[in-house]
Amino acid sequence: QSVLTQPPSVSAPPGQKVTISCAGSSSNIGNNYVSWYQHLPGTAPKLLIYENNKRPSGIPDRFSGSKSGTSATLGITGLQTGDEADYYCGTWDTSLSAGVFGGGTKLTVL
Amino acid sequence: QVQLQESGPGLVKPSETLSLTCAVSGYSFSSGYYWGWIRQTPGKGLEWIGSIYHSGNTYYNPSLKRRVTISLDTSKNQFSLKLNSVTAADAALYYCARVGNLVVGPFFDHWGQGTLVTVSS
């Protein structure tokens, strides 16, 4: 069982918007930065968002991140079939002194 | 550009030691950042194993701490993972990565392609 809680799956049609939630606690999300990753089978995870809402160079602005209290959200607009992947949130847990990830959310673009 | 490449045996016997190395190119350890190992077990999500700073300072996942050692070889620009007393539960796809902001909210911005480790006699 993961320290951070994500929905197992989300889906939306092409061109639409989807959000993926990541719930934690004051010992992790509440007091630390959140990052988000896209993981396609057979490839290395790709960093989409760091420090809650910053995008690395090369990541389109269709991807956005936000944080409120002990939860974080990844938003993806203009969905494309190529966005079908597993998405993970991650942060540091101060109580555990450990990096932690969510269990992952499988995005299906219908 | 920063590139990472894992290497090591793909098959380890139960109770033995898993040893992997990550070669880094395009970036010097002395310039900063943490470096870490993450694994993905079959059908499951990502698990942070541990990270090491260029100074040698380390952080380990508490659930693996008794069995894990991460070390750095700055002369070869590589870092290594050793996991002792492996069981079938340690079979996974192991990734190495560069880590920013480790203790305030880490982000893994460059990853190796991953190496699959099977545990079997």
Topology:
The complex is a heterodimer of chains A (110) and B (121).
Chain A: E1 9-12, E2 18-23, E3 35-39, E4 46-49, E5 63-68, E6 71-76, E7 85-93, E8 98-101, E9 105-109
Parallel strand pairs in A: 1-9
Antiparallel strand pairs in A: 2-6, 3-4, 3-7, 5-6, 7-8, 7-9
Chain B: E1 3-7, E2 11-12, E3 18-25, E4 34-40, E5 46-53, E6 58-60, E7 68-73, E8 78-83, E9 92-100, E10 107-111, E11 115-119
Parallel strand pairs in B: 2-11
Antiparallel strand pairs in B: 1-3, 3-8, 4-5, 4-9, 5-6, 7-8, 9-10, 9-11
The residue fraction in helices of chain A comes out at: under 10%
Number of strands of chain A: 9
Shape of chain A: globular
Oligomer: heterodimer
Q: In sequence order, what are the helices and strands of chain B, one letter per element?
A: EEEEEEEEEEE
Could you tell me how far the N terminus lies from the C terminus of chain B, measured between alpha carbons in angstroms? 39 Å
Mean pLDDT of chain A: 96
Strand content of chain A: 35-45%
Number of helices of chain A: 0
> What sort of overall outline of chain B do the alpha carbons produce when their principal axes are compared?
globular
Radius of gyration of chain B: 13 Å
Largest interface: A-B, 30 and 26 residues
Specify Rg of chain A, calculated over alpha carbons.
13 Å
Low-confidence stretches of chain A: none
